Amino acid sequence: MKSAPRRSAGTPSRDRSAHVDAGGGSAIRGVAMPVRRGRGVAALCVALASMLVLSACTLLPTPQAKPSTSTVDPSIAASAPEGLEKYYSQSVEWSPCEDGLHCGKVQVPKDYANPASGDIALSVIKLPSTGNKQGSVLINPGGPGGSGVDFVKDAGSTHFTEKLRANYDVVGFDPRGVGRSAPVTCMTDAERDAAREKVFRKNTDEGLAAALAFNKSFADQCAQQTGDVLGLIDTVSAAKDLDILRAVANDAKLNYLGFSYGTLLGSTYASLFPDNVGRMVLDGAVDPANSNEELTAGQARAFEKALRTYVANCQGQQNCPLSGSVDNGVQEIRDLINAVDQNPQTAKDGRLVTVNDVVNGLILPLYNDLSWPALTQALETAFSGDVSQMMRLADLGADREPNGTYSSNSAFAFQAINCLDYPMVTDTAGMRAEEVRLIQDSPTFGAFFAYGSVTCKDWPYANTRTPAPVDYNGSAPIVVVGTTGDPATPLEWSQSLRKQLENASLVTWEGEGHTAYGRANTCVSTAVDDYFVDGKLPQDGLKC
Fold first, then answer.
1. How far apart are CA 340 and CA 335, in angstroms?
2. Nearest-5° angle of CA 502, CA 507, CA 511?
């Protein structure tokens, strides 16, 4: 294996873009990543534990579960829109599924425009209240494509405070198209590995044509294996599901905590069901008025900023492999990217490591400053010629297990939902112009954010949503939380959403990483808990 030079002249080439393991689109732009993916910070903490011991990942005991059946109060079932009464009045069988947790299924219409066309079974999980229960808080960890079932199962007892858990059942769910809820299905695990090895030179006509052909084939696979539900997993439909989940949880009003993409789901719900909003917290907001291209540009700038912050922090620590000034340290990382781009390498497990893997390995730890030491370790070994740890970080972002299996369909759902939610610039001239702007905004990552729309150009279903400011006229105030150093959902998006909601309060955490509640300081957790439990709205403009 050829070692990657630690320092060399030159700049990263501008003719490639990273792709998710799904089908060759950007693995970075994701309205929370590749959440990505609104990937929950707690989930990232668990995933990185195998590489670096993080004290924040300790587990707490959960209450003991007993089988139960929940029946909806008739007064709550009466809130059902016409034609949907059976969904709002359904009983849910809750069975023990993990230590102290209950699992169940909730039926929702596959197509709200034609409820008689069939149902989707949504997978739900409940961490029961440990004290005097006020109601339920429904959770979405981000994405699109993040599993709320896995989030609550893996981190429910650590990400949410004792005060919140004492007063509420914490309820996670897999949205339609995700995880266990009519999942988008496209590729085998072996095919996903093979797709991740592809690097398309999209700034050339030949490379762009190859990428488009690959993604059309991928889209055809998704349509064939998933069925017509593939065209019905948009965010508006998921928000309507959320109201059914509220009803079967026996709550007259929706209490909701959404992270990253979960804020778009929450604000969409607020616009559709303003009178049903209870206590709602939107953490790490996506601006619903932003176009796909505006979201991409915002993330590119924010990740570039986060990288520079990481480098400055690293250079203040012992054994940092980055030397000199921040500019010099960033250039060393760009040189590594460029070296692997020119000469793909081999990990210890024998797999090919491409430039996409290196970039995705850089991106993931920027979601949580607690994982910066893992990035430092991976860079140190990469500069010495072994990119295996960078590959492992990329695997964590792709939800690939060491045994070669993929633990989620989040990459597939991410692409499918975004194609429905956003109209995209797909003409060649428009994509080329966007690439130029992105590289100007983000010299390190901009080229990898470009051409993300190739994934949707030949998608079998047209987009169904037009980005627009949220229209909320409800009487319940909503809390928006933003983080100054958030790379995936920049602070200005939270500020914009707060203005659009009008009846809202903005809490700002002056910290690094994606989202705040569950990983920030007691100022944030107290503000959110007091709002959920006591109804105390935090001061608008509170800085923590």
1. 9
2. 140
For residue 338, give Cα distances in angstroms to 90, 297, 322, 354, 450. 56, 22, 16, 10, 17
Give residues with Cβ within 8 angstroms of 332, minimum separation 6. 6, 7, 321, 322, 323, 383
Q: Which run of H or of E encompasses 238?
A: helix 235-248
The CA dihedral of 138, 140, 141, 146, to the nearest 10 degrees, is 130
Angle at alpha carbon of residue 249, lines to 247 and 250, rounded to 5°: 65
Residue 50 carries which side chain, given as an amino acid letter? S
* DSSP states along 395-407: HHHHTB-TTS-B-
Nearest to 17 by CA among 420, 354, 353, 440: 354
Alpha-carbon distance 283 to 474, whole Å? Answer: 19
- Which band of pLDDT confidence, cut at 50, 70 and 90, is reported for residue 298? very high
456 CB-side CA count, 13 A = 27
pLDDT at 99: 81
**For residue 504, what are the β-bridge partners?**
478
Query: What is the pLDDT averaged over residues 133-137?
Result: 96
pLDDT of residue 375: 98
Query: What residues does 109 pair with on adjacent strands?
Result: 119
Q: Are 138 and 254 in contact (CB under 8 A)?
A: yes
pLDDT digit string, tens, across residues 456-491:
999 999 999 999 999 999 999 999 999 999 999 999
Q: Which of 437, 497, 439 is nearest to 469 (CA)?
A: 497
263 contact partners, CB below 8 Å, separation of at least 6: 282, 283, 284, 285, 286, 480, 489, 497
Contacts made by residues 231-234, CB under 8 angstroms, sequence distance 24+: 231/420, 231/460, 231/461, 232/110, 232/111, 232/176, 233/175, 233/176, 233/177, 233/178, 233/182, 233/184, 233/413, 233/416, 233/417, 233/420, 234/417, 234/420, 234/421, 234/464, 234/465
Catalytic positions are 260, 486, 514
φ and ψ at residue 478, rounded to 5 degrees: -115, 140
For 34-79, how does the pLDDT look when each residue is reduced to its tens digit (9 = 90+)?
333 344 444 454 455 444 433 333 333 344 546 677 788 888 988 8
End-to-end CA distance of the chain: 48
What is the helix, strand, coil percentage profile of the chain, to 5? 45, 15, 40
Sequence-distant (6+) residues with CB within 8 A of 435 are 14, 202, 203, 446, 447, 450, 451
